[in-house]
Amino acid sequence: MPGNVAMEAAKNDLKPGEPSPASAATSAAAMPLAAREALGRLRAVILLGGSVRTGRLASSIGRSVLDLPVEEKKSVLDLWQAQAAHLASMLGLRGLPVRVFIDQASEMPRPARSVPEVNVQLERDPLDFRGTAGVLHDHSRVYEANDLMLVGNAAQILLEPLPDLAAGLVLKGGAVSLVAHDDGIPSGLMLIRRDCLDDIKPMGFVDLKEQALPAIAAKHGVGVMRRSSPTGLPIRTLDDYISALQHYHRRLAGIVDDDPMAEEWRTSFSLVEEGATVAPGARVHDSVVLRGGRLEKSAVAVHSVICPGGVVPAGGMAVNQVVAGPDVRPSRSQA
Q: Are 171 and 306 members of one domain?
């Protein structure tokens, strides 16, 4: 069942995407044989890291959003790497490419640490305004027609194990298989067969969901794997990031997110990076203090991100804020 790996990880003080000693020994048996055989054609995990506009959070943190922390000393990209490594291990693969496409305007994330199961490759999009479908078309020409690519929005935190999601998607069939929530809105993860991208025009902007998917569905067919709750949550805005961290850490603690009696006032997480300063008496409630950020004596941060150079003064309070350094000036397009 989806979520079993996450619950096992929580019980054993592990992270989602990192197999426990017991699950590592039985990982191949945990995936249906049909799914494991079909995923033998998987050639890459592709993470789309482009952004249509730079928001307040991204412009204030002084780094890629993929370098934002999710746990102590673990970033968004680190968790993607761990999830992909778990998938590769279940499939018996070594060196599975994890290709991270970053647009011209966005910060490049830090290179990932080396692990044998996957090879994380950071790639800058050579063209501006190509669109997600255009980027996939251009970068997938190295694969054979029947090869598979697992494609996700990079700026999200998965709430279900990637092996569970990949297995469910491949068993749905179709040239494209995607996750959809009960309201019908697609999530940020899909499995794509390379040949269905052939008809995408080689130049100009082509969006995947709005333009390419309807054409692919008409010609090739699309499989849909439905979920009643989110399989992953975006992190592009402050509200997105805080909400995703709350869901993620609650799941680690075994708390059901849709419980109407959940006590929202309880702290789900408190992340303080090395190089940040939190003075005596200061409190960090469902907030993140990045390296170079500072909370002075008796200051309080609630649902906020304190960025490099950002300061919450003594006795002050930051609530639902991106507290930026003095050199950051928001534009009208930022949110």
A: no
